[in-house]
Every structure is written in structure tokens, then in C-alpha cells.
Design goal:
The complex is a heterodimer of chains A (439) and B (764). By secondary structure, chain A is mainly alpha-helical. Chain A is 55% helix and 0% strand. Chain B is mostly helical and 764 residues long. The chains are: A mainly alpha (439), B mainly alpha (764). β1 of chain A pairs parallel with β5 of chain B.
């Protein structure tokens, strides 16, 4: 009797060993070069997770005890966060499992651990790991409302309210812990930028305490350059919705304005936010004047598509703040030897912008592009009251400007050059002829 | 009173009368009477000469008289007459008669002399005719045919006669507009250029747009405003011939021109000598007012001139080319239907031949020759443009052909501006599209090939670059701006290309003096990559250039020895095409040349933008870099000098900044309400309403009327019915009454009878 019982036991133990080794083998296969193999291994493992969840390997300690094959999922997550290989395709496959509450919750936990342990395992964490981690983390998206029906991957016969996994609050806590754990590390710049790009709409709203992000965001804002521009958005959300007090915010914003803003990829986003920040009517006049003057100053190096946006932007500033109109209209002003504005001053209060005038816009009235010239000529007349919406101009690209110019209908008769052509470099007064030869 | 005195008196009176008559009554004294436009006096003389037959007879009679008068005659017949006369006038030795006779004699003699001369001349001409005929027969065989023809029709008038008449009646050379002197031509040309320049300025300032609406033309007070315009004075001189009115019509003239037959000249010859009325009346008062028409005409003229001038310059080349090509090139070419066709026509030929082919295609397919030619030549422009692009991308690029083809492109563009602009816009869009795609896929673009640069250059040659807005030039400007901002500079080749684009850009704005931020940025970048040490501040680089990286010292000369050997030379466009890996020295020389061009362009910019109000803000970063350049003394002294001169130009320019003020806007006037005036069209009718309203009112009115009518009808009916009922009742009442009466009567009689009976009884 005992023998037979012992034999069954032995068999079970043996079976469990086989199962373990099968799982670990499948986990190894997640790093297989062939994508089909990887995909198959993933789906098999997930199937195991489902089955093991329904029939736990260990007995529940009490009635209604929540059991989940955490180890198995940890194996899967570990395979996904491979430090050697780019798992982006597999991660996009995994994304569909993340729709289930339980999988999401446990994945977050597993990922948090994996990220926390990463520096211990590798002295120099490879960027692929961070890339994979970022992809996994950004794939996690919490539902905005408390879901009416919790969807579980592992089928449960009865549900209990006591389980952590059923509460959105717990999810948010884990989510926050996961991100904070991730952002604690020194991330590569590209990942840093990616995080900042998605910060305001995928991360911040789901955090239990968004204020915890302040350190990260201010740190990023202080970095300067494109990263600062990107951090603005997150900061704005914090300031706007979570009453963040940020000293010297405008001063730093002022410091962000340098000639490169017209050439970076995030130009539209930056000006959208700058417009928001400067829309308050309670800002002091010197500040707005400094911004207007600085933007006008920078406009002297901007390409036409940016000019078409920044010129109405400056005019809007002047419209909002009538005290700044002296920049374009100073009837009793004296003639000056030089521009009193100091472009090198970091503090807008010391830039003496209010004593200056927007001569830059006057210069831009001579811009080669007719639309820019027209936009700059607005200041010649008294500014009209309604603001010009710059929203459609934010995303304007040079190609669109070009297309618009091509499509515009001209006068009935096309003007032609009346000086006859004498050859490619025929005109003797041309600069081309002076500096280039055909030979 | 002696007879002598009497005579004197009479004579005086006669003279007086004659004189008075002349002055008072003979109004037409001074006028010359004409017939067929010829003086009557002339005609009379002419008749005298022509009617020689009758003259001879008369002459005989007169001569007898003459002899009698002059020589005493000796003829007895006349004696009595003369004696009579002598009785009267004998006393006067030189009487009036004698004077007259003398006069007559003189005239007769003259006439005879003339006659003799004429006869002589006739004889001579006859002789000459005969001689001429002989000579002609000997000389020419060609005219024999026409002679034969003449002989058949009219045997007498020979070729010489005809020729004489022809020459006689041939239109006198009209006084054409005289040849213009060189000064006048120059002035005219200057005037034309001035006008075109004024037009260009207007477009440059962008005032075009609202003024484009046609200005009202001048209107005469007599204008009926019916759109009728008297183009030319079509009145003609009325003239007669042989009693018939001659209608000189252009048609006739044309016919005459076309008709090669000589005879037709005879009939109309007289008429043709008359002046052409249109010519003489052409420059009339109102033609000045139609400035449009005139200017168009002038435009055409100028175009023709322009078309002609470049051809003149080429003639010598062409002639050479013709000599060479005569043996192999066909003279006519069909216009190519596709680009491949054109390519096959042109490929493998020499420069001159290619030019000749293109020219011949143009000539064979001149739009005036056939209907479809315009479309063909329009297509030719596009194909040529493509061909030019292909030539530019070839390795090595064939600039000689492009150089020559540009002239052809210019001519075609002058002919078909619309299609030319479309083709150019198409190639520009292509280039931009390619770049945009590259930016989207790779995140950055590379400077396009030489073809795009050449297209941009050609655009600048074909269209006015100074316009405020131009359908072709403005997109081209945006395209160049893209080239300067989107494309990173990775090699020397890119630098050359970029500098070429800069030159183009500056050429585009050379007249309009417009501001180009991208260009300043680019030149700043060029200066930056030519400086080795990068510590100083005061400037920020923007997009295509990076402060650090492997291309941040692209233009730094690697070997100082090459500085000394650098030959100052222009950049070659060939370097922008396929640059073979040059030797170190060559590369260094190219670097220095690039820097030289960059500095020269910078100087140009500084001079051009000096007047801009924020010039110092624009120039500050450049100045910082230039000072750095100056500090580094490794450059050749030429470049050092250039740098120095730019810096001094920047410093020397002090400008006073006038604070900005808005233009005073006009106060908005109060809105005025003018009363609405309604015309009274017809009295007695309700006015001031729309048609529907009127219709409604009309219907209401009608309804009312109908309603009233209906009511009246009903009322009438009721009355009638009531009347009828009443009469019926009356009738019935009367009947009843009658019956009642009858009954009462019968009862009364009955009663009476009964009473009478009773009384009787009682009595009894």
C-alpha cells in the first residue's frame, strides 16, 4: 500500500521535475533567434500560466486564498527583458496578455523586480535591456476608470474583494513603484527622451501620487536642450493639476529659448506649451516683453515655416498684454544708439526688454517669403483685438509651405524676365558668375 | 474830249472794272479748280499737247492771221479789215492789238518748238524701242514667253512700253518712317527697359494685387458707352476716275499684290498711286489712349527683338556649325513626342549639332505654321528641361550644352510662359518631394544633385526674381531655404553645392534686397567649420551644422604649406558634381576657395543688410567668428584682408534706432443710415412690397370681393325666398278669408232665412 502510494508520489515528483525543466527550457527558447520559436514559446508559457493558475501546484492555505504562478510569469518577464536581444516584436505580442488585470498586475511586479536587479547582474547595463524594459513598461496601460468586471486571464470560479489584484488602487501603486524604480536608474538619453515624450499622457495620469515625479522632471528640466523642452510638458501637468510650485519656472523657460528651438523636432509641442504658459494675464509686463523680444531676436535665424508661426505668436503676446505694446508703439520715444535689450542676460527681469522695440520684426518685413513679410507687417498697424490662433500653424512644415505656394493661383499673365538669358552663367553681375565657373 | 483821252478813260474804267470784279465778286479767283485731283489748268495744257491733230488745223488759220498782223501780209483779203482797224487805232504806234498779236505769236512759236521737240523725242523713242527690242531679244530668254503672250493679246504695246508705264505709274516710294539714329534706338531701348523695370518694382513691392483690377480707360464725352471703339480711322479720300467713284479697298490692293500679271497694273495703276489712308491716319489722337494695345504690340516687338538678339550673337557659331553639319544633319525634325525621342535625337552629337537640332525643331514647328505645333513646342520645353537635368547629373556634367540650351529654354519660355512655369514647378516639386521623403525615412536629407541646382539657376534666369510673390520663384525660394536648412554638410562637395545655393539665393534677392535668415546661418556655419579652435562664445549654430563632430572642421586646412601655393580661383561647378577624391593639396586649395567665396558672400550680405534696423543683432555672431578668424593667422593674407574689411564694414556702420510706432489708423466713422427710398411706379396701388406680398394682397382682396358678392347673392336669395313665402302665405290667407267670408255669408243667409221663418212663424 505504502509502496504503491510511494510510487505515485515518486511519479508526481518526477512529473513536477519534468514540468520545471520544460518551463525553464521554454524560458531559454524565448531568446531563440527565430521569431516563430520565440512566439510559440511565449504562447506555450502563457498557456502554462493559465493552467497552473486554475490548478495551483500548492494547496491554498485558506479558503479563498489567491494563488498565481508568479514564478512562471517572472520567468516570462525575465525572458522578455533580455539584455542581449531586441524583443520589441515579442513584446508587441505580449501586449495582448496585458489586457487582463491579473497578468498586468503580476507583470508589473515582476518587471519592477527585474529592473531593480538589473544593475546587480550586469555591471554595465546594456541599452537593449533598457529599451526592452521601456517597451514593456510603456505597454502597460491602466484603465482610466475602475472596471466594472475584472477580466482575469486565469479563470476563477469565485471572486473575492479581498484580493489585491481586483483593486485599481493597488494597480496604480504598483504602476507607480514600477516607473519610479525604472526612472531611478541612469537611463540612456534616447530612452530618457522617449519617457519624457509619453510622460504627460501615459504615465502621469495613472500614478497614485504624481507629485513623486517632481524630482525626475525637475532634474530633466535642468538638463537643458531638447530634454528640457520635453520635460516641460510633464511639469506643466504637475503645475496645472497638482499645484506644483516651481520657482524660477519662467526664468528657465526663458533660458530654453535659443536659436535651435526653431529647428528641433519638438518645436510644435514647445510652442504649444509656451503659448499656454504665457496665456496667463497675471504675468508681469517685463516678463512678457522679454519673451516677445527674445522670440523676435531668435526669429532672425528661423526658417520661413517657423517664422509663420512665431510672428503671430509674438503678436498674440502683445495683444494679451497691452502693457507690452510699447514694444511696437512708442510715440514719444527718443532715438537710440543701440538696442537696450541684452540678449545674453539670463534673467528676463534684467534684459531691459521693455525699453526696446521689436526692430527684428521690422527687419523681417523685408523677408524673402511674401507670407512672412505680411505676417511681420502686422505690427505696422494697431494690433487688432482678437488673437490669431496659432494652433494650425504649429505643425506647419516647409514642405507644406512649398505646396501652398505652388497651389496658389497667380495673376492671369505670368510675369517673365525681360533680360535675355545668355547662358547658364551669362549675367556678368551675378554672384554665381563671379564665384563659379563651369570648367 | 479828244478820242485819245476818251480811250484813256475807257481803258482806265475797264481796268478798274476788271480790278473790282476780281476783288469783289470773283471769289474763286485764288482757288485752283481741279478735276480728278488735277488742276484744270494742267488738264487744259495737257489737252493742248495731246490733241495735236486739231491743233494743226487751227494753227494754219492762226498763222495766216499772224503773218498778216506781223508782216503786213500783202494779202488783199485782209486789207479792208486792217484798214478799218487802222482807222481806229492807226494813231497809236503800239496799240493793244499789236501787243496781243505779239503775245499770240510768241505763244505759237513756243508751241511749234514744243511740237518739233516732241516729234524728235517720239522719233528717238521709237528708235530706242527698236534698239531695246533687239537687245532684249538678245539678252533674255525668260521674258520671251510673256512677250509672246502680249503679242497674242495686243500686238502693239511692247515690253518697253509696258515697262515705261509701269515705272510711270508705279507707287511712288512712300515716305516711310525714317531710319532711327543710334541715339534714338538707344533711347527707345532705355525707355522700354525703364518701363519694364517700373513694372518689376511694382510687383516687387507687392502692390500688384489690389491694383490688378483694370483701370477704367479714358472715356470721351461723346462716348455712347456701347463698347464701340474706333480702332483706326477708316475714312478714305474720295476720288473719281472716268466719272466713276473708285473704292480703294484693301482687298483690291491685296489682290493686286498677289496678282503677278502685269496687265492688271494698267487699270488700277492710277488708283495705286494714291496714298494709303491707314498709314497716314494711323497715329491719330485716340490711339494714344489705348496704351494697352500699344504696349502689347510693343511687347511683341521687344520679344521679337529679344529673340533676335541672342541669335545674332550665335550666328558665327551657327555658320560654322552649319558647315560642319550640312553633310549629315537633316533639315527638318518632327517635334519629339516623348523625352526618349528627344534624347535619341540629341545624344551622341556635338554641342553645335545639338543646338542646331533644337533650333530646327523649333523652326519646323513654329506655332504659326500648323495648329498642333504650340502644344508640341510646349512639350519640348519640358523635355529640354529634363534633358538639361540629365546632362547635369551625368558624370562629368556637360555644362557646355546646358549653357547653350539655356538660351533656347529662355526663348521657349518667352513664347509659352504658362507651360514653362508648369514644367519648372513640376521639377521643383519633384525635388522637394524627394527631399521630404528622405527626411521622413532617414531623418535627414542630403543635398540634391547638380540637376536641382541647375533647375534653380534656370528658374532665376527665366522669371523675374524680385517679385513680391511669383508662382514659380516663391516656391523656388522655399526650396533653396530647405536646401540650406535641412541638409547637413558632410563633404567638400556639399560645401561647394551649399555655396552655390547661397550665390543663387543672393542673386534672387539682388534687386529686391530681401532678408534671408537661412543664408546668414549657413555662412556662419561655413565660417565655423573653417575655424580650428572652438572655445569662444557669442554665437549659436543652427540645424545643418553641429558644434562638434567629425564634420565640424571640414574646411580647416590640414597642411599649412598649401596655404602658400593656393591659387585664387573661382569654384568650379564640376566639383559640385562628381568630385573625384582629390589629392591633399587640391582638397586644401578647394577649402581655401570655399572659404574665400563664403567670405565674399558674407561681405555682400553685410553691405546689403546694413540698412536693416536690426543689423547688429544679425551681424553679432558673425562678427564674433570673424574676429576668431582674424586671430588665427594661418590664412592667406588675401583672406585676412577680406575678413578685416568685413569687420570694419560691420563696425563702421552706426545706426540710430528709431522706436517703432504704429501707423495712425483712421477713426472708424459712425454708421450712417440712409433712408430707404422706394420708387413709386404706379399710383393707386400698394407699393413697397415684394411680389409675393403683392400677390397675397391681391388674393386677399379678391377673396374679400368674392365673399361680399357671395353674401349679397345669399341675401338676395333669402329675400326672394322670403318674398315668395310671404306671397304664398298672403295667397293662402286671402283664400281662407274668402272662404270664411263665404261661410259667414252662407251662415248669415241661413240665419236670416231662419229668422225670417221664425218671424213668419211668430207672426203667424
Amino acid at each position: 500500500m505504502a509502496g504503491s502510494r510511494g510510487a505515485t508520489y515518486k511519479y508526481k515528483v518526477w512529473m513536477r521535475h519534468r514540468y520545471r525543466s520544460c518551463c525553464s527550457r521554454l524560458g531559454e527558447l524565448l531568446a531563440h533567434p527565430s521569431f516563430q520559436v520565440k512566439e510559440l514559446a511565449l504562447s506555450t508559457l502563457m498557456k502554462f500560466v493559465q493552467l497552473e493558475g486554475t490548478c495551483p501546484l500548492e494547496k491554498p492555505k485558506w479558503e479563498g486564498n489567491y494563488l498565481f504562478p508568479r514564478e512562471l510569469l517572472r520567468l516570462v518577464v525575465g525572458g522578455l527583458l533580455s539584455p542581449e536581444e531586441d524583443q520589441s516584436l515579442l513584446l508587441s505580442q505580449f501586449r495582448e496578455y496585458l489586457e487582463h488585470d491579473d497578468i498586468r498586475y503580476h507583470t508589473m511586479q515582476a518587471a519592477m523586480d527585474a529592473v531593480a536587479q538589473a544593475p546587480d547582474r550586469h555591471p554595465e547595463v546594456p541599452p537593449t535591456f533598457w529599451n526592452n524594459a521601456f517597451l514593456l513598461l510603456s505597454a502597460v496601460s491602466l484603465p482610466h476608470q475602475e472596471p466594472a468586471v475584472t477580466s482575469f486571464y486565469v479563470k476563477r470560479t469565485e471572486l473575492s474583494n479581498k484580493w489585491k489584484v481586483a483593486h485599481r488602487k493597488e494597480h496604480r501603486k504598483t504602476f507607480q513603484a514600477m516607473w519610479l524604480g525604472f526612472l531611478k536608474h541612469k537611463l540612456p538619453l534616447s530612452i530618457y527622451k522617449k519617457v519624457l515624450v509619453t510622460m504627460h499622457d501615459t504615465i502621469l495620469p495613472h500614478l497614485a501620487q504624481p507629485a513623486l515625479m517632481i524630482d525626475f522632471l525637475t532634474g530633466a528640466y535642468d538638463l537643458g536642450g531638447a530634454v528640457s523642452l520635453l520635460a516641460l510638458n510633464g511639469l506643466f501637468v504637475l503645475i496645472h493639476e497638482h499645484n506644483l510650485e516651481y520657482p524660477d519656472f519662467y526664468r528657465k523657460l526663458y533660458g530654453l529659448l535659443d536659436p535651435s528651438i526653431f529647428h528641433v523636432k519638438y518645436r510644435a509641442r514647445f510652442f504649444h506649451l509656451a503659448d499656454l504658459f504665457l496665456s496667463s494675464s497675471h504675468l508681469p509686463a517685463y516678463l512678457v516683453a522679454a519673451f516677445a523680444k527674445r522670440l523676435a531676436h531668435l526669429a532672425l535665424t528661423a526658417p520661413p515655416e517657423a517664422l509663420l508661426m512665431v510672428l503671430p505668436f509674438v503678436c498674440n503676446l502683445l495683444r494679451r498684454h497691452p502693457a507690452c505694446r510699447v514694444l511696437v508703439h512708442r510715440p514719444q520715444g527718443l532715438e537710440l544708439d543701440a538696442d537696450p535689450y541684452d540678449p545674453a542676460a539670463e534673467d528676463p527681469a534684467k534684459s531691459r526688454a521693455l525699453e526696446s522695440s521689436l526692430w527684428e520684426l521690422q527687419a523681417l518685413q523685408r523677408h524673402y517669403h511674401p507670407e512672412v513679410s505680411k505676417a511681420a507687417s502686422v505690427i505696422n498697424q494697431t494690433l487688432s483685438v482678437p488673437e490669431v490662433s496659432i494652433a494650425p500653424l504649429l505643425e506647419l512644415t516647409a514642405y507644406e509651405v512649398f505646396e501652398q505656394d505652388l497651389k496658389r493661383k497667380g495673376p492671369a499673365s505670368l510675369p517673365l524676365e525681360f533680360v535675355p538669358a545668355r547662358g547658364l552663367l551669362g549675367q556678368p553681375n551675378d554672384l554665381c558668375t563671379q564665384h563659379f565657373t563651369l570648367g | 474830249m479828244s478820242p485819245e483821252e476818251k480811250m484813256m478813260k475807257r481803258f482806265a474804267l475797264e481796268q478798274q472794272r476788271h480790278h473790282e470784279k476780281k476783288s469783289i465778286y470773283n471769289l474763286n479767283e485764288d482757288e485752283e479748280l481741279t478735276h480728278y485731283g488735277q488742276s484744270l489748268a494742267d488738264i487744259e495744257k495737257h489737252n493742248d499737247i495731246v490733241d495735236s491733230d486739231s491743233d494743226t488745223e487751227e494753227r494754219g488759220a492762226l498763222s495766216a492771221e499772224l503773218t498778216a498782223a506781223h508782216f503786213g501780209g500783202g494779202a488783199g483779203l485782209l486789207h479792208s479789215k486792217t484798214s478799218q482797224q487802222e482807222g481806229e487805232e492807226g494813231q497809236k504806234p503800239k496799240s493793244r492789238k499789236e501787243l496781243i498779236e505779239e503775245l499770240i505769236a510768241k505763244s505759237k512759236q513756243e508751241k511749234r518748238e514744243r511740237q518739233a521737240q516732241r516729234e524728235d523725242a517720239l522719233e528717238l523713242t521709237e528708235k530706242l524701242d527698236q534698239d531695246w527690242k533687239e537687245i532684249q531679244i538678245l539678252l533674255s530668254h525668260k521674258t520671251a514667253k510673256s512677250e509672246n503672250k502680249d503679242k497674242k493679246e495686243k500686238p502693239k504695246p511692247d515690253a518697253y512700253d509696258m515697262m515705261v508705264r509701269e515705272l510711270g505709274f508705279e507707287m511712288k516710294a512712300q515716305p516711310s518712317s525714317r531710319m532711327k539714329t543710334e541715339e534714338e534706338l538707344a533711347r527707345e531701348e532705355q525707355e522700354r527697359l525703364r518701363r519694364l523695370e517700373a513694372e518689376r518694382l511694382r510687383r516687387m513691392l507687392g502692390k500688384d494685387e489690389d491694383e490688378n483690377i483694370k483701370k477704367p480707360k479714358h472715356m470721351s464725352a461723346d462716348d455712347l458707352n456701347d463698347g464701340f471703339v474706333l480702332d483706326k480711322d477708316d475714312r478714305r479720300l474720295l476720288s473719281y476716275k472716268d466719272g466713276k467713284m473708285i473704292v480703294q479697298e484693301d482687298v483690291q490692293e491685296e489682290q493686286r499684290k498677289e496678282a503677278s500679271d502685269a496687265e492688271s497694273e494698267e487699270e488700277e495703276g492710277g488708283g495705286s498711286s494714291g496714298e494709303d489712308p491707314e498709314e497716314s491716319d494711323g497715329p491719330d489722337g485716340h490711339s494714344d489712349l489705348e496704351s494697352n494695345v500699344e504696349s502689347e504690340g510693343e511687347n511683341e516687338k521687344t520679344k521679337k527683338e529679344q529673340r533676335r538678339t541672342p541669335e545674332k550673337g550665335q550666328t558665327s557659331d551657327e555658320q560654322k556649325a552649319r558647315k560642319a553639319a550640312r553633310t549629315e544633319l537633316p533639315y527638318t525634325f518632327a517635334a519629339p513626342e516623348s523625352y526618349e525621342e528627344l534624347r535619341s535625337l540629341l545624344s551622341g552629337r556635338s554641342v553645335e549639332e545639338q543646338l542646331l537640332v533644337v533650333e530646327r525643331i523649333q523652326k519646323c514647328n513654329h506655332p504659326g505654321l500648323a495648329v498642333g505645333n504650340k502644344a508640341k513646342l510646349e512639350k519640348l520645353f519640358g523635355f529640354l528641361l529634363e534633358y538639361v537635368g540629365d546632362l547635369a547629373t551625368d558624370d562629368p556634367p556637360d555644362f557646355r550644352v546646358i549653357d547653350k540650351l539655356v538660351v533656347q529654354l529662355y526663348n521657349l519660355c518667352q513664347m509659352f510662359p504658362e507651360s514653362a512655369s508648369d514644367s519648372i514647378r513640376f521639377v521643383l516639386r519633384d525635388a522637394m518631394h524627394e527631399m521630404e521623403e528622405m527626411v521622413e525615412t532617414k531623418g535627414r536629407a542630403t543635398l540634391p544633385g547638380l540637376d536641382v541646382l541647375i533647375y534653380l539657376k534656370i528658374t532665376g534666369l527665366l522669371f523675374p526674381t524680385s517679385d513680391f510673390w511669383h508662382p514659380v520663384v516663391t516656391p523656388a525660394l522655399v526650396c533653396m531655404s530647405q536646401l540650406l536648412t535641412k541638409c547637413p554638410i558632410l563633404s567638400l562637395q556639399d560645401v561647394v553645392k551649399g555655396l552655390f545655393v547661397c550665390c543663387l539665393f543672393l542673386d534672387y534677392v539682388s534687386l529686391s534686397q530681401r532678408f534671408i535668415p537661412e543664408l546668414i546661418n549657413f555662412l556662419l556655419g561655413i565660417l565655423y567649420i573653417a575655424t580650428p579652435n572652438k572655445q569662444s562664445q557669442g554665437y549659436t549654430l543652427v540645424h545643418p551644422f553641429r558644434a562638434l563632430g567629425k564634420n565640424s572642421e571640414l574646411l580647416v586646412v590640414s597642411d599649412k604649406e598649401d596655404v602658400a601655393t593656393w591659387p585664387r580661383s573661382s569654384l568650379s561647378l564640376r566639383w559640385a558634381g562628381g568630385l573625384r577624391t582629390p589629392t591633399m593639396t587640391e582638397a586644401n586649395h578647394i577649402r581655401l576657395s570655399c572659404l574665400a567665396v563664403g567670405l565674399a558672400l558674407l561681405k555682400h550680405c553685410v553691405l546689403m543688410y546694413r540698412s536693416l534696423p536690426s543689423f547688429h543683432a544679425i551681424a553679432r555672431p558673425l562678427q564674433a567668428l570673424l574676429v576668431e578668424h582674424l586671430a588665427d593667422c594661418s590664412h592667406p593674407c588675401e583672406l585676412q584682408e577680406l575678413c578685416q574689411s568685413i569687420v570694419t564694414e560691420m563696425d563702421s556702420h552706426k545706426q540710430l534706432l528709431q522706436p517703432l510706432t504704429c501707423e495712425k489708423s483712421k477713426p472708424v466713422p459712425l454708421k450712417l443710415f440712409t433712408p430707404q427710398l422706394v420708387k413709386v411706379l404706379e399710383f393707386g396701388r400698394k407699393q413697397g412690397s415684394s411680389k409675393e406680398e403683392q400677390e397675397r394682397k391681391r388674393l386677399i382682396h379678391k377673396h374679400k370681393r368674392e365673399f361680399k358678392g357671395a353674401v349679397r347673392e345669399i341675401r338676395k336669395d333669402n329675400q326672394f325666398l322670403a318674398r315668395m313665402q310671404l306671397s304664398e302665405i298672403m295667397e293662402r290667407d286671402a283664400e281662407r278669408k274668402r272662404k270664411v267670408k263665404q261661410l259667414f255669408n252662407s251662415l248669415a243667409t241661413q240665419e236670416g232665412e231662419w229668422k225670417a221663418l221664425k218671424r213668419k212663424k211668430f207672426k203667424k
